[in-house]
Write a sequence for this structure.
């Protein structure tokens, strides 16, 4: 057999099954960008897919802005920023993810409802272009991964892979096995989570997982306490932070999550379980309908200026003689 020099070329790409060299992200909003930065910081190449080339440019501008913010706080150097961005690509063409070893779907549609059909369509587009051994993950926490994978040709390679926000600082991910998920796919996702320095929480498939199911209940109860006039927004949050060691109080956490996203989570869980604890509290719905989504709009349970709390929005009712 004749050998040629190219067979020994250092630049020749050889893909080994079970390796993780490149990750694709579908939908690069706030969470998608955080995930992309985390993956890139750990030395793995990333490509994200978004709606248009114009949106791709916007994402890169937002990434640079966030990295510059980290630099201003002495969290990164300019060299770190350059290296992180060098490992991130963006595109509006699904064909550009064909060589990825793992895909993470992180779409955030503004349409009401569960977005189940939209996510199914996205996963079908992904499956049409990637290799048969590529693992397909979804960052959803309120939908069943088995239901999302139902119409795929290879549902055995789908895994729930839920990052908690902010993904850049929370050292934990929830990994969910679907009914048809095989061991190889699950084990590779667990391996990847450890590669990016995340603690893996494994759980059985259930809408809301652990994190979303418990945090929305806590936030709803905090709103009930506020509505009853028991205490102010700040006092409720201070009690949970200093009394139980939480990083943020439930109402500040709601602002950080975004009330638009929170309402969608709650509606999905209420539709699934039919339990009052998941139904959006009237205070949340009123803020949401007023366009007060939290930190992203500078108005939520709190008022913000340059990302810093400067006041409260909801007044605590009092009874006086």
């Amino acid at each position: 057999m004749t050998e040629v020099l190219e067979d020994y070329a250092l630049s020749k790409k050889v893909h080994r099954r079970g390796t993780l060299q490149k990750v694709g992200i579908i939908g690069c909003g706030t969470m998608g960008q955080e995930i992309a930065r985390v993956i890139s910081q750990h030395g793995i190449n990333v490509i994200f897919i978004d709606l248009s080339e114009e949106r791709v440019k916007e994402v890169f501008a937002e990434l640079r802005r966030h990295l510059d913010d980290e630099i201003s706080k002495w969290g990164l150097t300019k060299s770190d920023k350059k290296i992180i961005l060098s490992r991130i690509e963006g595109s509006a063409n699904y064909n550009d993810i064909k060589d990825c070893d793992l895909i993470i779907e992180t779409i955030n549609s503004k349409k009401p409802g569960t977005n189940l059909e939209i996510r199914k369509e996205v996963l079908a587009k992904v499956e049409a272009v990637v290799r048969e051994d590529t693992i397909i993950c979804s960052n959803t926490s309120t939908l069943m991964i088995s239901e999302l994978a139902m119409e795929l040709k290879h549902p055995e390679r789908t895994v729930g892979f839920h990052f908690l926000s902010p993904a850049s600082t929370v050292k934990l991910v929830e990994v969910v096995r679907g009914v048809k998920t095989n061991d190889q796919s699950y084990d590779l996702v667990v391996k990847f989570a450890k590669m990016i320095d995340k603690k893996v929480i494994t759980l059985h498939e259930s809408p809301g997982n652990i994190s979303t199911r418990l945090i929305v209940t806590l936030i709803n109860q905090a709103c009930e306490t506020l509505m009853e006039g028991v205490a102010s927004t700040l006092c409720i949050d201070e009690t949970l932070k200093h009394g139980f060691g939480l990083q943020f109080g439930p109402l500040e956490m709601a602002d950080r999550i975004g009330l638009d996203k929170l309402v969608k989570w709650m509606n999905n869980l209420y539709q699934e379980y039919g339990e009052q604890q998941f139904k959006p509290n009237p205070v949340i719905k009123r803020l949401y309908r007023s366009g007060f989504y939290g930190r992203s709009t500078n108005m939520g349970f709190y008022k913000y200026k340059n990302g810093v709390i400067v006041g409260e929005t909801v007044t605590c009712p009092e009874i006086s003689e």
